[in-house]
Design a protein that fits this description.
- By secondary structure, the chain is an all-alpha fold.
- It has three helices and no strands.
- It is globular, with a radius of gyration of 13 Å.
């Protein structure tokens, strides 16, 4: 299940993130989770999880176009 920063379900991104080769880049996690806007996004995305479901794993991705 993939939810974007606006809280929209994105099955197209779920497919791409599990199918295509991904080239990861390191990020500063503390910057993302300690910013007020970042915390709101995380809570909004968590609210979209199915009620009563316990996630097996949670990951955050920042998707950028190369070029």
């Amino acid at each position: 299940m993939v939810v974007d920063a606006k809280g929209t379900l994105r099955p197209d991104l779920a497919d791409r993130l599990t199918r295509e080769p991904i080239v990861p880049e390191p990020i500063e996690v503390k910057k993302w989770v300690t910013r007020r806007a970042g915390a709101r996004r995380i809570r909004r995305m968590a609210d979209l999880l199915p009620k009563g479901a316990k996630p097996q794993a949670v990951a955050g991705f920042r998707v950028r176009r190369r070029g």
